[in-house]
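Posting for a labmate who doesn't have an account.
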Amino acid sequence: MTSLEIAVTTFSVQSAKPGQRYGQLATLPVLNNASEVFLRAPLTKIPAGATVSSAVLRFYGLTAESGSRTLHVQPTSSQVDSNIKWTGRPGSTGTQSDLTKSSPRIGTAWDFAVTTAVQQVVSGQRVDFGWRLRGDAATANLLRLAGSSAAKRKPVLLVTYSVVPPAPENLHPSGGAVSVAKPSLTFDAHNAILALQVQVDPAQNATTPAFDSGTVAA
């Protein structure tokens, strides 16, 4: 398994000034449907075709709040860039990650599980346009989070993934089947392969091998 921390770039948009470009603020206000955050994380840092076992989008709170707060993160349906404004902002699509906290304090970590959405990008099933973070429409209370230009506690994407190495090649004899009398087998394997298993299967039925090495370290 490989763990990776990817820096996130955030942009604020606010309905009070729909034509204004706020850019990368150090403090991100989130207020139901009146103030939202759009963000990008370069998922190209994850190898194409990797298996993503965990992906968490982490924000940190900047203020202590009373009562309950609910936030939503969802992939966008069009490109997020530095020119984003409230007017013409991207919509959202795909799997939504929801998170509710009671009386969050200064420094509270908001960890959104986004494994499915990240895996879709890495597997080529979805284009990585960006993400939208918004407050719950039914909650009229403001919440402030640290943005990508904050002095500390900047938002990050925490990813754990693995890459399956290519299957062995140039097997001899062809197909990898040998007899008990002549159990000589050669092949070329990628240096990322960590374990091997060799079977001698005269019946070639893959159920009753005459010899089975079990899983051994490569």
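Reply:
Got it, the structure tokens are right above this. The chain has two domains: 2-162, 169-217.
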